[in-house]
Specification:
Layout lengths: L2 H34 L5 E6 L18 E8 L4 E9 L7 E3 L1 E6 L12 E2 L8 E3 L4 E3 L3 E5 L4 E8 L8 E2 L6 E6 L10 E5 L2 E2 L1 E7 L6 E6 L1 H4 L11 H11 L7 E6 L17 H10 L4 E7 L2 H9 L7 H17 L3 E5 L12 H16 L5 E3 L1 H5 E2 L2 E5 L12 H9 L8
Parallel strand pairs: 16-17, 16-18, 18-19, 19-20
Antiparallel strand pairs: 1-15, 2-10, 2-12, 3-8, 3-9, 3-15, 4-7, 5-6, 5-10, 11-14, 12-13, 21-22
Helix pairs in contact: 3-9, 4-6, 6-7
Length: 417
C-alpha cells in the first residue's frame, strides 16, 4: 500500500473519530442539560399562590411595554436557580420578552453587578399559554438564605388579565415604558402590592434540604404585618429554624391567600377554595415533605357578613380530611394548626365561636393530623380566651409583627427533627 493511500485512510479514520467524539460530546451535553431539571437537590426556596380569579370586577390593570420588578424573600440558599411563571388565570397567551434575577438593594433598585438574564428552552423570550406554567432554564446563581431577590419581567404586549397574588404585604414595581430588566434603578411608573406571574423560585441546595409548605389564609399570608418587612409568621419561623443548630434546615414556603376558605369562595380576590388550589399551590412545589394547615376562620366568619350562618364544623373537618388524604398520598406529613381567637373581629358571631371551638377540638384530639401546632393558645388573651391578646392585634383577627413572632416561637421544633 502506498504511503499516500495510507495517509488518506489515516486521515479518514481520524475524521471519523473526531466526528464520533463531537457527536458524543454533543449528546452528553444534551443529556446533562436534560438532567439539570431532574437533579434531586432542587427545592423551592420561595413560593406564592395565585389569588385573583379572572373576569372579576376587581381585575388589576393590564401592563404593556413595561417591566415588572417583583421583590421576594428566600428561605434556604443555593448555588443554582430557576423560577416558575404562571398564567393560570390569564385570558390570553402571555409573552415574556426578557427576564432577569438579581440581589435586591432597596426600593426598586438591585445590587450593581448581580443581575443575570434568564432563558426558557434556550431562548430569551417565552410565550406562556393561557392557563399554563413555564419553568426557566437553570442558571448558576449564588442565592443567599433569608435574603431579598428581585425578579424582573418585561412584557412587550398588552398583558390582559395578570395572574397574581394580590395582597403580598410587599411593595413591587411597574416600570415606565421599555425593557428595564437589567436596570439597576428601575424607572417607576407605579407601585403594586401584587406578585404578578411569579409563583415559585427553586434552588439547588447540596444539603439534601426539603420544604415545609405553610398553607392558610390571611394570617399565614401575613396580613397586618409590616409592609415589605418579611414579618409573616412563616418568615419568623424560617429565621428561628435556621438559628437552631440542632434542627435540620428546611425551605419554608408560604401558601397562604388572604380571605381564602377551605370549602367555598366568597370573593374573587380571595382565590379558589383550598380543595381546588391544593394541587397547584402545594403538591406541585419542589421538595415538599411537610406542611402546616391553618385555615377555616373565613369559612366560619364570612357567611355572617351576608347575614348567613357559619359553615359547619362538619363541613370544614370534611375538607381537612380530604387535604390530609391527598398530602399523605404524596408522603407529606401534615400538621394541623388551631384557629386563633377572633372575638371583636368584623365578622365574629357567638355561633361562629362555637364552630371554631369544635374545629379546634378536632385538630387537637381527632388523631388525623400527624401533629398539632396550637396557635390558639399561643396568642389568646388568658383573661378572655376567645380574643387575641390586645397587644398582639390591631383588628382582633390578624396578629401584628409581635403576634406573628409569638406564633412562630410557639411551634415545637421536634415536629421537624
Amino acid at each position: 500500500m502506498s504511503s499516500h493511500l495510507k495517509d488518506k485512510l489515516f486521515n479518514k479514520s481520524m475524521l471519523h473519530l473526531v466526528l464520533v467524539l463531537l457527536v458524543s460530546i454533543s449528546l452528553s451535553g444534551v443529556e446533562l442539560s436534560a438532567q439539570e431539571h431532574g437533579d434531586s437537590r432542587w427545592v423551592s426556596t420561595w413560593a406564592t399562590s395565585p389569588s385573583t380569579v379572572a373576569n372579576s370586577a376587581a381585575d388589576p390593570a393590564t401592563v404593556e411595554d413595561q417591566t415588572l420588578r417583583l421583590i421576594v424573600h428566600t428561605s434556604v440558599g443555593g448555588s443554582s436557580l430557576r423560577l416558575r411563571l404562571s398564567n393560570t388565570h390569564g385570558d390570553r397567551a402571555m409573552k415574556i420578552a426578557a427576564a432577569s434575577v438579581a440581589l435586591h438593594a432597596e426600593g426598586a433598585s438591585i445590587r450593581p453587578g448581580s443581575s443575570q438574564s434568564l432563558r426558557f428552552g434556550g431562548q430569551a423570550e417565552v410565550i406562556i399559554p393561557r392557563g399554563a406554567t413555564v419553568i426557566s432554564d437553570p442558571i448558576d446563581f449564588m442565592v443567599p438564605e433569608l435574603t431579598n431577590l428581585a425578579v424582573s419581567l418585561y412584557l412587550p404586549e398588552n398583558s390582559g388579565f395578570l395572574t397574581a397574588h394580590a395582597l403580598a404585604n410587599q411593595t413591587n414595581y411597574i416600570s415606565e415604558s421599555g425593557n428595564h430588566v437589567a436596570s439597576v434603578n428601575l424607572p417607576i411608573e407605579a407601585e403594586t402590592t401584587a406578585w404578578n406571574l411569579l409563583t415559585a423560585i427553586d434552588v439547588i441546595n447540596s444539603d439534601s434540604v426539603s420544604a415545609i409548605a405553610m398553607v392558610g389564609d390571611s394570617i399565614t399570608d401575613g396580613w397586618g404585618s409590616t409592609d415589605s418587612g418579611n414579618q409573616r409568621w412563616p418568615n419568623h419561623f424560617a429565621r428561628r429554624l435556621f438559628a437552631d443548630s440542632s434542627t435540620a434546615k428546611y425551605a419554608v414556603l408560604n401558601a397562604g391567600i388572604s380571605g381564602n376558605q377551605v370549602t367555598t369562595e366568597g370573593n374573587s380576590l380571595f382565590g379558589q377554595n383550598l380543595q381546588a388550589r391544593f394541587e397547584r399551590d402545594v403538591l406541585a412545589l419542589t421538595g415538599v415533605t411537610h406542611m402546616v394547615l391553618m385555615e377555616g376562620i373565613n369559612d366560619i366568619g364570612m357567611p355572617s357578613m351576608a347575614g348567613g350562618a357559619p359553615t359547619s364544623a362538619v363541613q370544614i373537618i370534611a375538607g381537612y380530611k380530604q387535604i390530609i388524604a391527598r398530602a399523605h398520598a404524596r408522603g407529606i406529613k401534615i400538621f394541623g394548626a388551631t384557629l386563633t381567637p377572633y372575638e371583636g373581629a368584623a365578622y365574629y358571631t357567638p355561633a361562629g365561636e362555637l364552630v371554631r371551638q369544635e374545629v379546634n377540638e378536632f385538630i387537637r384530639n381527632g388523631g388525623t393530623f400527624d401533629g398539632v401546632i396550637d396557635f390558639d393558645r399561643a396568642i389568646q388573651d388568658p383573661a378572655n380566651p376567645s380574643r387575641i391578646l390586645p397587644a398582639l392585634t390591631e383588628d382582633n383577627l390578624h396578629p401584628n409583627d409581635i403576634g406573628y413572632k409569638l406564633m412562630a416561637d410557639s411551634i415545637d421544633l421536634n415536629l421537624f427533627r
